[in-house]
């Protein structure tokens, strides 16, 4: 939600900020803006819509300053208007501010500021924060050992309830910026004679790979040559300078039309990266050093709890199936947003996991904190290195799939399933899975990238199917067992990027409600893999067909459907049960992608969505 970039340095700030905003656009794309400090005042340009609009607007001004801030917004308080776009400037013109998060007590602050003569030109909580800094700046005398601007930001934040990642500048202090975070990510990029602060590393890596991940409750003062971090309570913090392991090329589109397409086709490589170095030498089990648990500690676990949101929640459901199936231990999966409030009773030997691509989803983070508060060790399966969840978890597994930029998650999803399958194997081998079954399982997982390559070859066929069905406005996705979560994911993908109403259901459960929707206008996408439930799924298809519903069947090689039952058939390679959900993801990702493209939708930036939801 919202992307922010601040630059203090020796080069013109606006081109760098605009470039950074483009990379952060996946975080929010309602409206954008920049403020550059030049000639003793802020030059402010704000525009609704995408960064491209802002870029055209900026070109009309002479923005030469080397200190500036920029923002791409996902609206919370106040509609999508130029006035509500960030940066905000205080009514006395002294302070400019960008903000990611929500200030919950903004209305009492606003009342106070109005009584002091401050005026407001937007409906945002951010403008209130900005004016409160200005108020403290105007009122407070110089604080010993702290400059007045820094002191006024600190004082304001001590009053602020809610979440924030902010970057702010004062008109009297060119070359200085203050940034702080509580609940929204902020990262410092340490360059040569320039410093950057941004919501994520993608806006930084073009200039430097040296980064510092700010923690909640920290505030930093930045100039082109130095930075000092303290806590809001004025404790000094010694920064840990990390090195980003990926380069700018990883976050570029290359020859692809969309990031989603790029990320779908990157999956064989992403899976290889996720599993690299994580199998035992005898190839009979997985190794996860990052769990920080010994084998005997893991043996004490008799139940697992997984929390996540969105697509990651679907990956948890697949993991549930695999752990229960292979390790024979009970697993519970909950939406993080529900878990955090429902005070779920957990028993002593439960091991708690959260899954999150970004590592910043606020509900998932809150679930992690709630479980830790109850005394649980919480482990995370997470892609973004250094993210808040990665840092706060007691251990975990990094996905290593590189930056995922398309808002609809694809490669992170299949990697989460892979890691869930590896976890199931690891636990199963500590219990009663035999050495030879372990070897078979490992070999199957090692073959996953090639099977995905094979499945991707269906792209032209799926594109043609997409064309045939793109005009429909309702879809059902139906699957059973480990492919029921894939039905949910197929429906979610289609909804997210093509705005078609879609529901995912267990195939047999379909007759208890969704069947009422069936007509020639509502296609059903079935997962019908080889195995014990194949015939049952075929019966469900017959029920749909009898009501004139079009059937798109995703079958595994070697399966035969009764003639004329399916309107379209997509064949994926036959594979081990642990790999099947990964391979089965490919056709539904491609189907939703091509349908969205056919309908002319903005695939990478679907309306109303954001990649990383950092508000409740
Ligand atoms: C948002 C995204 C989804 C994602 C979900 C969880 O809703 O649009 O694609 O699955 O957040 O994100 P996370 O980063 O926690 O996996």
How would you characterize the overall build of this protein?
The protein is α/β, with parallel strands linked by helices and 616 residues long. The chain folds into three domains: 3-242, 4-Layer Sandwich (Glutamine Phosphoribosylpyrophosphate, subunit 1, domain 1), CATH 3.60.20; 252-446, Rossmann fold, CATH 3.40.50.10490; 457-604, Rossmann fold (3-Layer(aba) Sandwich), CATH 3.40.50. The strands form four sheets. The protein has an eight-stranded antiparallel sheet with strand order 3-2-4-1-10-9-11-14, with helices on one face. It has a six-stranded antiparallel sheet with strand order 5-6-7-8-12-13, with helices on one face. Strand 17, helix 11 and strand 18 form a beta-alpha-beta unit. Helix 3 crosses helix 4 (125-139). It is globular and about 80 Å long. The N and C termini lie close together (11 Å). 6-O-phosphono-alpha-D-glucopyranose binds at residues 309-312, 356-358, 361, 364, 407-409, 609, 611-613.
Number of domains in the coordinates? 3
- Specify the structural class: alpha/beta
Strand order of the largest sheet: 3-2-4-1-10-9-11-14
CATH fold type of the largest domain: Glutamine Phosphoribosylpyrophosphate, subunit 1, domain 1
CATH superfamily of the largest domain: Aminohydrolase, N-terminal nucleophile (Ntn) domain
What percentage of the residues does DSSP assign to strands (E)?
A: 15-25%
- Report the total helices: 19
Number of extended strands: 24
**What would CATH call the architecture of the largest domain?**
4-Layer Sandwich
Distance between the termini: 11 Å
CATH class of the largest domain: Alpha Beta
Helix share, percent = 25-40%
Average pLDDT for all residues: 94
């Amino acid at each position: 939600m919202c992307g922010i970039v601040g630059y203090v340095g020796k080069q013109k700030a606006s081109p760098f900020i605009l470039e950074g905003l483009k990379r952060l656009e996946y975080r929010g794309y309602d409206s954008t803006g920049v403020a550059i400090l030049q000639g003793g005042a802020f030059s402010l340009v704000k525009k609704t819509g995408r960064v491209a609009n802002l870029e055209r607007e900026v070109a009309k001004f002479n923005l030469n300053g080397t200190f500036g801030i920029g923002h791409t917004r996902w609206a919370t308080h106040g509609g999508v208007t130029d006035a509500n776009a960030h940066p905000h400037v205080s009514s006395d013109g002294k302070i400019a501010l960008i903000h990611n998060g929500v200030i919950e007590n903004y209305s009492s602050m606003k009342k106070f500021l109005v009584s002091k003569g401050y005026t407001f030109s937007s409906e945002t909580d951010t403008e209130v924060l900005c004016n409160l800094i200005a108020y403290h700046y105007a009122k407070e005398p110089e604080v010993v050992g702290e400059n007045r601007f820094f002191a006024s930001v600190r004082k304001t934040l001590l009053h602020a309830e809610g979440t924030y990642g902010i970057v702010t500048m004062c008109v009297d202090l060119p070359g200085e910026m203050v940034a702080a975070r509580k609940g929204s990510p902020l990262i410092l990029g340490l360059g040569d004679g320039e410093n950057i602060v941004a919501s994520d590393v993608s806006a930084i890596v073009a200039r430097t790979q040296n980064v510092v991940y700010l923690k909640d409750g920290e505030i930093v003062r930045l100039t082109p040559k130095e930075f000092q971090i303290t806590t809001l309570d004025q404790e000094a913090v010694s920064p840990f300078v990390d090195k980003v392991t990926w380069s700018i090329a990883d976050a570029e589109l290359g020859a692809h039309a969309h990031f989603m397409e790029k990320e779908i086709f990157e999956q064989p490589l992403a899976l290889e990266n996720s599993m690299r170095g994580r199998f035992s030498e005898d190839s009979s089990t997985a190794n996860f050093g990052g769990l920080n648990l010994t084998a005997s500690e893991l043996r004490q676990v008799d139940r697992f709890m997984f929390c996540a949101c969105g697509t990651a929640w679907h990956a948890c459901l697949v993991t549930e199936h695999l752990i229960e199936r292979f390790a024979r231990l009970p697993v519970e999966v909950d939406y993080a947003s529900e878990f955090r409030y429902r005070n779920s009773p957990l028993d002593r030997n439960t091991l708690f996991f959260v899954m999150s691509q970004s590592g910043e989803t606020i509900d998932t983070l809150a679930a992690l904190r709630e479980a830790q508060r109850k005394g649980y060790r919480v482990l995370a399966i997470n892609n973004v290195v250094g993210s808040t969840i990665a840092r706060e978890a007691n251990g975990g597994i990094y996905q290593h799939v590189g930056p995922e930029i398309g808002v609809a998650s694809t490669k992170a999803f299949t990697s989460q399933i892979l890691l869930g399958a590896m976890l199931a194997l690891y636990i199963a081998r500590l219990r009663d899975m035999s050495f030879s079954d372990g070897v078979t399982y490992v070999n199957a997982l090692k073959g996953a990238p090639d099977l995905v390559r094979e499945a991707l070859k269906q792209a032209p066929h799926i594109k043609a199917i997409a064309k045939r069905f793109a005009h429909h406005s309702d879809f059902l996705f139906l699957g059973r067992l480990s492919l029921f979560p894939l039905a949910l994911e197929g429906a979610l993908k289609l909804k997210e990027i093509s705005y078609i109403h879609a529901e995912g259901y267990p195939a047999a459960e379909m007759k208890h409600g969704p069947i009422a929707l069936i007509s020639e206008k509502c296609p059903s996408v079935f997962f019908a893999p080889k195995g014990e439930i194949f015939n049952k799924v075929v019966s469900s298809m017959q029920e749909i067909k009898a009501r004139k519903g079009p059937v798109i069947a995703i079958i595994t090689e070697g399966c035969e459907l009764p003639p004329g039952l399916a309107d379209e058939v997509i064949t994926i390679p036959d594979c081990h049960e642990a790999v099947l959900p990964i391979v089965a993801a490919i056709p539904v990702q491609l189907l939703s992608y091509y349908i969205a493209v056919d309908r002319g939708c903005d695939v990478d930036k679907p309306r109303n969505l954001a990649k990383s939801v950092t508000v409740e």
